[in-house]
């Protein structure tokens, strides 16, 4: 593996940052997770836009221009001869001192890792996933807006652990008003009477790139889609439910908190969206 670290491609052993890096000390930084499908970096520009927006939001200066960042990612993928895989872009605030003040961190650390992708086993795409809702909430927009893909992912880590303790691989978060937000690292959709619904991101969800790809597909396929708040009850009584994310793509959900969703099988609209999604991933992006 060749890792991009501040302008150089180095070995895994050389790809190290200081213990004084504020990404390590405080989770002060941002990241992206991007897929490569047969040499195509899926929706690279949408990921870059989100990366630069996250940086702007936390007053972090990425020491690369937009196109330089794109080149760094493409170069890293090439250097690793990856036709398919997963890219992790990490921009930390950089080396500072033990104080919180990032003004003592003169330069952000830029890291690009391109590796094989860890996927849900194919059986879950065929048979669906049983999930639960968990107590952990993603931050309210009044604190750190969950639309910032920050390095502070303790909430999502807790969601994963709480899911595991309930015997599930994934879970949904619910905000303090009782509205369903998202999964640990995925967005959520439900289908009811032929209509598709997903929560608005202001409730406490990341604005997923896969989420957008699915919204675009719904439009192309003539499926009515509404961004609207919904509760756990709405999920329990939905005809279909699925999660979307860079790693998960589109994953059918067949049970939530012990309630069977619809027929208890992956729904037809979910399956259609998954198969259409798998067609477009090689058509949208950069090489
Ligand atoms: N929600 C959270 C909290 C995430 O970290 C992610 C990310 O990967 C998503 C949703 C899905 O977003 P995307 O489709 O851009 O991968």
Oligomer: single chain
Estimate the mean pLDDT confidence.
96
How much β-strand is present in the residues? 25-35%
Largest sheet: 9 strands, mixed
Query: Would you list the SSEs in sequence order as H and E?
Result: EEHEEHHEEHEHEEEEHEHEEEHE
Quick one: CATH class of the largest domain?
Alpha Beta
Shape: globular
Number of strands: 16
Number of domains: 2
State the distance separating the first and last CA atoms. 19 Å
Topology readout:
Blueprint (H helix, E strand, L loop, with lengths): L1 E4 L2 E4 L10 H5 L2 E9 L2 E3 L1 H14 L8 H14 L5 E8 L16 E7 L6 H6 L1 E6 L19 H12 L5 E4 L5 E4 L3 E6 L2 E4 L10 H12 L4 E3 L4 H5 L3 E6 L3 E8 L2 E2 L7 H13 L4 E2 L1
Parallel strand pairs: 7-8, 7-14, 11-12
Antiparallel strand pairs: 1-2, 1-6, 3-4, 3-5, 4-16, 5-6, 8-9, 10-11, 10-13, 13-14, 14-15
The chain binds pyridoxal-5'-phosphate (PLP).
Pyridoxal-5'-phosphate (PLP) binds next to helix 6 and strand 13.
Structure description:
Helix content is 28%, strand content 28%. It contains 8 helices and 16 strands. The chain is an alpha+beta fold and 287 residues long. Strands 7, 8, 9, 10, 11, 12, 13, 14 and 15 form a 9-stranded mixed β-sheet that branches. Strands 2-1-6-5-3-4-16 form a 7-stranded antiparallel β-sheet. The two termini are 19 Å apart. It has 2 domains: 2-115, D-amino Acid Aminotransferase, Chain A, domain 1; 122-286, Alpha-Beta Barrel (D-amino Acid Aminotransferase, Chain A, domain 2). The protein is globular and about 55 Å long. Pyridoxal-5'-phosphate is lined by residues 33, 156, 182, 185-187, 205-206, 208-211, 244-246.
């Amino acid at each position: 593996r060749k890792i991009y670290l501040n302008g150089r491609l180095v070995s895994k052993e050389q790809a190290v940052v200081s213990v004084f890096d504020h990404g390590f000390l405080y989770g002060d930084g941002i990241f992206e997770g991007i897929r490569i499908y047969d040499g195509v970096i899926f929706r690279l520009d949408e990921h870059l836009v989100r990366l630069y927006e996250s940086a702007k939001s936390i007053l972090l200066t990425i020491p690369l221009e937009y196109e330089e960042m794109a080149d760094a990612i493409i170069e890293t993928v090439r250097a690793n001869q990856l036709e398919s895989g997963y890219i992790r872009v990490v921009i930390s605030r950089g080396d500072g001192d033990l104080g919180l003040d990032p003004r003592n961190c003169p330069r952000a650390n830029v890291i690009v890792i391109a590796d094989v992708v860890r996927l849900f086993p194919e059986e879950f795409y065929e048979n669906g996933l049983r999930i639960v809702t968990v107590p952990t909430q993603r931050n309210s927009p009044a604190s750190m807006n969950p639309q910032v893909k920050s390095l502070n992912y303790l909430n999502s880590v807790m969601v994963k652990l709480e899911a595991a303790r309930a015997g599930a691989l994934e879970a949904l978060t619910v905000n303090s008003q009782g509205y369903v937000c998202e999964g640990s690292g995925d967005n959520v959709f439900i289908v009811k009477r032929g209509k598709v619904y997903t929560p608005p991101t202001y409730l406490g969800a990341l604005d997923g790139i896969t989420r957008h790809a699915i919204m675009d597909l719904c439009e192309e396929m003539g499926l009515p889609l509404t961004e609207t708040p919904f509760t756990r009850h709405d999920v329990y009584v939905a005809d279909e439910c699925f999660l979307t994310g860079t790693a998960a793509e589109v994953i059918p959900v067949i049970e939530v908190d012990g309630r069977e969703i619809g027929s208890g099988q992956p729904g037809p609209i979910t399956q259609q969206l998954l198969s259409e999604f798998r067609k477009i991933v090689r058509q949208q992006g950069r090489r």
